[in-house]
Design a protein that fits this description.
This protein is an all-alpha fold and 160 residues long. It has nine helices and two strands, in the order H-H-E-E-H-H-H-H-H-H-H. It has one domain.
Length: 160
């Protein structure tokens, strides 16, 4: 059973981006599209490609901490603050499946690490290019746009 796109935006993606100080409608639209493309908006949360709503692999999860967040202790502290206090220490990768706000923060860190300029929030092909560069380098852009149409089905959010 998938998560409703409007509820994912309202209760998970937007509050997480606001908490991180990274909010803009394009970022919200991109994460919504990534969730649609990676897991069908949560209809399948775990497979060989990765964990959770954004299907983040264990090596990428570890790498974002070691190679990106380690260089920004303040940001790392914010992201770590979203993780469960005890569960994170015993099973950090499980947090990607069970903790939607933490998974969203990590997904955004993967995007931010690439330092690609965000397109307008209604530019689905532009959003698809960032998804492909960040999450699925061998995918087709239409995989993103088709997932958007199937899972979100409405025009993208307003521009920044």
């Amino acid at each position: 059973m998938a998560i409703a796109a409007s509820e994912l935006s309202e209760f998970v993606i937007r509050p997480t981006l606001l908490y991180l100080g990274r909010y803009c409608p394009s970022a919200e639209a991109l994460l919504l599209g990534i969730a649609a493309s990676q897991s069908g908006m949560g209809s399948a949360l775990h497979d060989r490609r990765g964990h959770g709503l954004y299907r983040i692999g264990e090596l990428r999860h570890q790498s974002i901490w070691d190679q990106f967040l380690a260089h920004d202790p303040e940001l790392a502290s914010l992201v770590r603050g979203l993780a469960s206090q005890h569960a994170f220490l015993s099973g950090p990768h499980l947090e990607l499946t069970v903790n939607l706000r933490y998974a969203t923060a990590i997904a955004w860190m993967l995007v931010e690490e690439k330092a690609l300029p965000l397109p307008e929030s209604d530019d689905l092909l532009g959003l698809a290019r960032i998804w492909r560069q960040t999450f699925q380098p061998h995918a087709r852009l239409r995989d993103f746009t088709q997932a958007w149409q199937a899972c979100v089905g409405k025009p993208a959010l307003q521009a920044c």
